[in-house]
Every structure is written in C-alpha cells, then in structure tokens.
C-alpha cells in the first residue's frame, strides 16, 4: 500500500505547499500535476466536482509525488466511503463545529469496529484486491483533516483537534471572516489574529495547522511562522488572473 507522504511530512514538521484544485477536470489537473506541489486539494464543496471527476483528477496525479486531498461537500459518511474506495488517502472535512462532528468524520474513514466505513474487498483503494495488507494498513495511511470555519468552532478548537484520529486542523479564512461580520475581508488583521492564536493552541497539543491564502508572500510567511500545510493559490485563480493580466498587457501595448 502506498505510504501517505503528506501525513508523514506534517507529523515530522515539514512545511507542505499546496494548490487548490477547483476546475473539476482531469486534463486541467494534469496540467498542474507535474508542477511539484507537496499537496493538491480536490474540492467538491465549492466546485462542480463529483466522485467520477475526482477519480480522473486522482489518476492525473498518480504518476507524481504530490499528495491529493479530497474535500467532500459535507461530513457525509456515504460520500467518504465512495472517495476512499476510489483511492483517497487524505480528506478535508468542511464546517466541523464540534467534537461529535470530528468523531463522525474519523469514524467514516475507519472500518468496524473502530468506525462505520462499509467494506468493499475489490476497489481502486486496494488496487482491486491486490494489496494484501490493505485492511491492516489503511487506517495508518489515512489522513483526516478538519476544517474550522466559525467563531463557535474556534472556541472549541483544542477539543476538536484532540479527537483521536484527527491528524490536522485547517482554518478557513473566507467563512471565518463572514462569521465575524466581515464577509469577503480575508486579509483582515483581526481575522488573522484569531486564526494565528487558534493555530498556536492546536500546535501546543501537537496537531498540525493549515490554511488557504491566495498570495505567495503570505503563504511563505505562514509556513515560516509554524503552519504545517498552506495552499498558496488555486488553479481557478491562476487561470482567471492570468487571463486578466494577458488581456490588460496587450491592451496597454496597443498604439492609440
């Protein structure tokens, strides 16, 4: 069974640079797969991604060392089961609000008696039955990340992070800013003070912290400040901003 390099890295304190994947297309995933990011988030929550498309994206990344992390649209054990059956070893669970919700997320990734994941003996996750030690190793190679997106969840962050089986805590600036009454203000100083303080509390109990920004300088600073995994941009953003800049540059160069 393939070792989960991302999980090993965040446990060893090695900074992991990520890219958000929202274009919902295996060919688009192919374009960025060989760029060399440590991890890539395959988003199902805020993109028109379905399980079959995620499979194609995972296949695009299968030839490189980048670890794919699937984000289901909700903390749904049925969806988690399907994602793991197609080979997802790392998952980011959105909008975790309590210890109980974190426990449900972990349980969805574990076979009985430790959890509630349904058993399929022949699926892509175990190379269609060819991985003889899959049932022995799958729990150890599965990374469970929980996403904190409200002030209510921030207040409980240590208890949520301490849940057995939670491997890391991801802070969502967009939803946190909205919950603070500062919708869209993802660079707000007060927002990042809350995130930074919560991240320190998580790190103090030995759990890695991560987040998403859309700025290389900010991403590097967070990784230098102790964050373990930071996505520093998205394929969607790169395409949109690149298209805007190209058009603007050409218009600027046209003689009036």
Question: What is the CATH architecture term?
Answer: Alpha-Beta Barrel
* Annotated CATH topology: TIM Barrel
Low-confidence stretches: none
Question: What is the number of independent domains?
Answer: 1
Helix and strand element order: HEHEHEHEHHEHHEHHEHEH
CATH superfamily: Phosphoenolpyruvate-binding domains
Mean pLDDT: 97
**Count of DSSP helices?**
12
- Amino- and carboxy-terminal Cα gap: 62 Å
CATH class descriptor name: Alpha Beta
Number-wise, the strands total 8
Strand order of the largest sheet: 3-2-1-8-7-6-5-4
The main pleated sheet reads as:
8 strands, parallel
- Estimate the global geometry from the Cα principal axes: globular
- Output the structural class: alpha/beta
Radius of gyration: 19 Å
Helix content: 40-55%
Detailed description of the structure:
The relative contact order is 0.14. Helix 2 (26-33) runs parallel beside helix 3 and helix 4 runs parallel beside helix 5. Strand 2 (39-43), helix 3 and strand 3 (67-71) form a beta-alpha-beta unit. The chain has 12 helices and 8 strands. With 256 residues, the chain is α/β, with parallel strands linked by helices. The termini are far apart.
